[in-house]
RNA sequence: GCGCCCGUAGCUCAGCUGGAUAGAGCGUCGGCCUCCGGAGCCGAAGGUCAGAGGUUCGAAUCCUCUCGGGCGCGCCA
């Protein structure tokens, strides 16, 4: 509907340009939904925006625009108001088209081809496989998946990817931690390092290893600890850990080390995969960092930067001239030790993505990584890749509240709330809805008690209840020995004249615009808010207007309206990864 | 110190590329069940959009500064 009016406006403006009223390079003007129904249904500020360029007063220009507008059957009236707004009022039945469309298109209602099949990749969560997913990752998962769904719904060819950091020091620390817990199980008097992974899951992995391999990886603690630099608090915990890892590799030999390293990775990855699956998040691809390192892609990426003349050596390390591309300082690619940094593999990773031909690469990151964005863009620019293809979406932290008090989290000590615990406590539906209820750049206060409560306060139940209630009406219909005659209902849509019905129809008609806007802004919270509003309009209608009336045509028309509402609720909830129950 | 994000009703937040009297939910107060699920509906009170300048026909929205909060600023990932 909005598109149709935009067409009319564009035609009118083109005509005025042809007549010389408007200069050829006049800026575009848009049609928007009127906020206040007193201003009609849609409005355009074209006359206000273009008045200066045309050298006319806004109201005079508005009159010229109105005169130039082509006729359209849906438009009942066009009025000029205020300083020069042009307001469109539609004929009441123009809105009813939405009911027909919702029923005819079913699951496709609201979808569009705006993306024209262009390829976009959404990479999200990508947590290190060194521990279970916690509630912070949950928000990234809910957000990233919903954004991917929205892009799919608007005609993009979407790929969801998880970047697995299976190379590097953090994985080595996990391997060392697992091995030390394993040695404890073997009866060795281990002093567990301050910097090791403390969580219970490490014991579980160690126990798995012990069950499977017996004492094959046992080494005397005295040999392990011999001559290591002191741990914190007396010494440096990082140096201690590095030495411990080196010692582990030396004592275990390559094969045993790979085994210990591998079981940690395997168990954690499997746990992450299961958590996400239960959270209704599926990936097209799990991309291994190690495959980049071992395949030489990291070295090649560094070489490409070198060939571009954007690296130099200093203090024994290899630096990338990031400051020449807008970053605040230069960044190390290869350490003095010869080890490439995480940044180097990330450059290689994004180079690989770009090479896979995605028109857009959307990375969903925790907001604490924001400082990392400029250097990655800088690297892409230095490699001749348009940095605009990379879109980094930062998701702020979620803070959990229980009983009005903040729930403390700390990854170090292993006392964090895991995504699994959250899911078990409030359920996937409530968790996913709450996570996307606020815009991503907003800190999220996640009230566990509210998410669990089965009351009107809880927006998830409110929306789901609307869906279940419509299903219940249909069951009642059946119990009365009646059936819905869709054709008869659609033919009688003109009889939906009650204020609540008209309001519901208008909200319904907005759905395709909501999907498009939410996708464009990468803002699934707009869908959540819309669903709340739609449910509200439905509940109001439910209380004001009886559906199962004796008049067959009127009944079928009203049922067509609420079935269209049910379809819209279901489509919206699906985009957010939330179920639409038939009864609750 | 520098950089990024944020500051809107008692609380939690919307407010789409600047647009016409600033919107929801919760909470508070007052109403609505002989009827399709009361997990519902209706109404009322409640705001100097942190503050000060500026741009504009028009600013919660854009620019500058100040104040307040969060997060970054590693040869960690």
Produce the secondary structure layout.
Layout: H1 2-18, E1 31-33, E2 42-44, H2 46-54, H3 58-68, E3 75-81, E4 85-90, H4 97-105, E5 119-123, H5 135-153, E6 157-164, H6 169-186, H7 200-213, H8 221-225, H9 237-278, E7 285-288, H10 289-294, H11 297-307, E8 311-314, E9 317-320, E10 331-334, H12 342-355, E11 360-366, H13 373-382, E12 390-395, E13 398-402, E14 405-406, H14 419-426, H15 428-435, E15 444-447, H16 448-452, H17 459-479, H18 486-491, H19 499-509, H20 511-520, H21 525-544, H22 552-576
Parallel strand pairs: 5-6, 5-11, 6-7, 11-12, 13-15
Antiparallel strand pairs: 1-2, 2-4, 3-4, 8-9, 9-10, 13-14
The protein binds one RNA strand of 77 nucleotides through helix 2, strand 9, strand 10, helix 12 and helix 17.
Descriptive overview:
Strands 7-6-5-11-12 form a five-stranded parallel β-sheet. The two termini are 35 Å apart. Helices cover 51% and strands 12% of the residues. The protein is of the alpha/beta class. It contains 22 helices and 15 strands. The protein is globular. The model has no long low-confidence stretch (mean pLDDT 91). The protein folds into three domains: 89 residues, Gyrase A, domain 2 (2-Layer Sandwich), CATH 3.30.1360; 218 residues, Rossmann fold; 117 residues, Isoleucyl-tRNA Synthetase, Domain 1. Helix 2 packs across helix 3 and helix 7 crosses helix 9. Strand 5, helix 5 and strand 6 form a beta-alpha-beta unit. It binds one RNA strand of 77 nucleotides through helix 2, strand 9, strand 10, helix 12 and helix 17.
